Amino acid sequence: MGILKTLKRKILNIEYKSSKNLEIPINKNIIVTGANSGIGFELTKILSIDGNNLLAFINFNDDRILNIKKKNIKIIKCDFSNPENINNHSEEIKNFKPNLLINCAATFGPENQNFNDLIVTEFNTIININVLSPFILIQKSLQGQALEQIINISSLMGSISSNNNGNYYLYKSSKSLLNSITKNLSFDINQKINIFCLHPGDVKTKMNTGGLISPEIAARKIINISSDNNLNYRGKFIDLNGNILGW
């Protein structure tokens, strides 16, 4: 089973690399969260071409992002388990005048999330990181009055219509709430700002060690979607291929 999964992962990665050229937005001010690992790290690495400026939000660990060594990346350490920490960076975000915000940072929470064992404090932490921090970052980014696009990285596990097996209450609920807030914001913010949720698929990360898609491939697809900036995605939930998913 392990050999078959590894082979499938390689085939998927090769198929994508040969299917479409990478289209990187240029001359943009970009905020990426979760920038030290997984998709967030790969997004930061690829988007940090000359002409772009990045604010890269990380928690505490900076072992990977420091290896990029680009002058156009400003690293901000911020603990999203307390969303009010973002207020310490309000002026910097506003003055940065972000054009693109990609909310990647997330936590899965404990492995045991069945309804008999839920712990309220753990639920609070997951909601803070997965929902309230992205929401506050959107608020702060809008104050720069230059925002063009908001991409909230969600998960199919947050889709109510696709929920066929229960369990994982904390993570599923947090992603459902992120989806709901994204839909709500699509009515309340400037209609020229493209905002949508994106399910990155079965990506191999710290949260999903058995994933089939590499973070690099997921990041490349997200960047291509961002470059297209298709307003038909506004207020929608999509996958890496631009297919509309059910909430």
In short:
The protein is α/β, with parallel strands linked by helices and 247 residues long. 36% of the residues lie in helices and 14% in strands. The chain has a single domain, classed as 3-Layer(aba) Sandwich (Rossmann fold), CATH 3.40.50.
CATH superfamily: NAD(P)-binding Rossmann-like Domain
Shape: globular
Structural class: alpha/beta
Q: Specify the biggest β-sheet.
A: 7 strands, parallel
Structure in words:
With about 250 residues, the protein is α/β, with parallel strands linked by helices. The chain has a single domain (about 25-240), classed as NAD(P)-binding Rossmann-like Domain (Rossmann fold, 3-Layer(aba) Sandwich). It contains 6 helices and 7 strands. The chain has a 7-stranded parallel β-sheet, with helices on both faces. β4, α4 and β5 (about 150-155) form a beta-alpha-beta unit. α2 (about 40-45) packs across α6 (about 215-230), α3 packs across α4 and α4 runs parallel beside α5 (about 170-190). The protein starts with a helix and ends in an 8-residue tail after the last strand. The model has no long low-confidence stretch (mean pLDDT about 90).
